[in-house]
Backbone:
């Protein structure tokens, strides 16, 4: 299946139409391409980018895991829109094989995050293969440079409020199923 380039109507829509995040915690700028189980997003680092470090003129490399997570959220959002469903909150559970190949995301540079669903359970548990690439500068004949990669584990419950309340939508209260921090 070929990638669907988001020329119309998706490219004209704000990324907030696809993710549950709100400012100032929106880290990705836009969706570039979609195909079933795969999404590509883009971010250009500016002085207004969340986590931008003025001293280093960059965003720290560990923020890449959130670029991956928000790209996964955007994929879920696109799929929800295609089903005429609501955008739901998901949870980043962790990652495996995380490799950060660059020290930082540099000011003025553009990065593309590729996410591919490897596995998903009916419960909402899923695993994604993720990579972040530094895009070549305009006029350069360089290829994209891999700057981060990981397998990311996420969970998106059917009923977020019930999940956070601890009953996972069953109507039963279970004192052992409390959100983190309780």
Residues:
């Amino acid at each position: 299946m070929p990638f669907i380039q988001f020329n119309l109507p998706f490219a004209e829509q704000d990324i907030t139409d696809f993710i549950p995040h709100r400012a100032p915690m929106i880290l990705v700028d836009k969706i570039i391409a979609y195909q079933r189980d795969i999404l590509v997003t883009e971010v250009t680092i500016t002085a207004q980018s969340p986590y931008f470090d003025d001293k280093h003129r960059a965003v720290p490399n560990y923020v890449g895991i959130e670029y991956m997570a928000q790209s996964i959220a955007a994929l879920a959002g696109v799929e929800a829109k295609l089903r005429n469903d609501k955008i739901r909150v998901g949870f980043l559970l962790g990652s495996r094989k995380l490799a950060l190949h660059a020290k930082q995301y540099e000011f003025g540079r553009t990065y593309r995050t590729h996410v591919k669903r490897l596995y998903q359970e009916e419960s909402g548990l899923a695993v994604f293969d993720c990579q972040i690439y530094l895009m070549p500068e305009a006029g350069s004949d360089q290829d994209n440079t891999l700057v981060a990669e990981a397998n990311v584990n996420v969970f998106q419950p059917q009923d977020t409020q019930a999940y956070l309340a601890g009953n996972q939508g069953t109507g039963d209260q279970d004192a052992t199923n409390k959100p983190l921090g309780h």
About this structure: Residues 1-8, 169-182 have pLDDT under 50 and may be disordered. The two ends are 45 Å apart (CA to CA). Residues 13 and 135 are 23 Å apart (CA to CA). Residues 64-82 form the longest helix (19 residues).
